[in-house]
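Hi L.,

You mentioned the student needs an example of a multi-chain input paired with its predicted structure. This one should do, with 523 residues in total across all chains.
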Amino acid sequence: MESLTNRKKEVSKKEMTFMESIYLPAVLKGMSLTLKHAFRKPVTYRYPKELRPIAPVYRGMHVLKRDEEGRENCTACGLCAVACPAEAITMVAAEREPGEEKLYREEKYAAIYEINMLRCIFCGLCEEACPKEAIFLTDRLVPTDFEREEFIYGKDKLVEDVDNRIDITKRQNTGKRGKK
Amino acid sequence: MDTGLLIEKSILILILFALSLGIAAYQTYFERKVAAWIQDRIGPNRAGPYGILQPLADGGKLFFKEDFIPANADKYLFMIAPGIAMTVALMTSAVIPWGPDIEAFGRTVVLQVTDVNIGILYIMGVASIGVYGIMIGAWASNNKYSLFSAIRASSQMISYELAMGLSVITIVLMSGSLSIREIVDAQHGFNWNIWYQPVGFVVFFVCSIAETNRAPFDMAECESELITGYHTEYGAMKMGFFLFAEYVNLFIASTVIAAFFLGGYNFPGMDYFSGNTLALLCVAVFFIKIVLVIFTFMWIRWTLPRFRYDQLMRLGWKKLIPIALINLVITAVVIAFYKGWFN
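Structure written out for the whole complex:
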């Protein structure tokens, strides 16, 4: 069959000629190749100092969004937990008490919302399943830690700060179905 | 004996000692940098600016590692072996001429520890003792892989010393002396041996790679097959000695190549200088040549994969020795014609 890439090489086990058997021409060829590489720009990123450029739609650490008035969007419907293929998400729902209208947008909210970052595969299915635009993946990285327990992120780490909003506009209109 | 001479030689020996060790230490850094350049990486850059303190960090680490001796090892031989490797490696530099004489404090200082009139034989002899360090260390480790490595190292050493000796004889024929000082002086200016003996140079270079146990002839180490061979059971500074000895050997091998074939401290246009300026320039030029040869050694190491054992033996006995022999005969005949012995 015809090769598609033109990189195919027929191999044979013929006797080496004298020039081949003293290896020198092949050695020189190899050395010129490595010398060419020696003057190339290194491909290394010096990680803590300099970050690898990431896609604008990078799927990193999650955020639980609030709406414009600072109320949590999440209603603890559990669709994200059902969608999650790694079963990383758990939550406990609670009913909104009178006087908490400034905190939660609807009558039901997540009293506990936990994502196990060691289980999470950052597929983004939770984001896709969410009917309330409450959970999004961001371009932030999950920091390292020493204990496994530290990687179970609760609401304290997931919910965005009212005064310090996380920008997720880049991810909002990227799905197959267009704008959410 | 003249006290001045004694002091002068002691200082020279101390400088050489420190220089060999310092260069060996920085060769480890240079080797890692060369590897990084060739593999499109950056290499060590954490310790100090551009990572230049890396050798110190590595040495310090080796000192604080556990000094372990395996239960069934031969204790004394196990401890002597790294010492032999190191001592032998440091001994070779004694007969190398580093430059023309320097006038200092009203004396003529010869930049050579001793001008033995059989310098070449001394170098070849001492270099071949180096394999004893490897052999004894491997035997004393009581480890199968180490023993395999020792057997390979010694047979490789024997095979490649023959071709090396044959190519050295052509050099001796060219200059008519076994003294390294006279061989270097015979290459005055740009009259280097490599222009007359390119084949001898290539053979000598290949054999030097084999003698210093470096890739593609690092049969004694073979990380993938023999789990680094003779230093499998070694740790801490004992292993450090082996590694260090290897780099000192590399330095000496480069020095010898530079002296035999690349004109030693001679450079074109050296007649325009004289006195101490000439001497210092010569030393500088010699070291530039040495560094270039060392770079070539490393360049080859990071280009080629390891030869198979049978390929190594075939190359040594069936290719290098006949080539060196033919080269020797042709050189001898040409020199005989040149000197008019057939008339």
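You could point out the following to them. Helices of chain A lie at 18-21, 24-38, 79-83, 125-129, 155-158, 169-172. Residues 174-180 of chain A have pLDDT under 50 and may be disordered.

Best wishes,
N.
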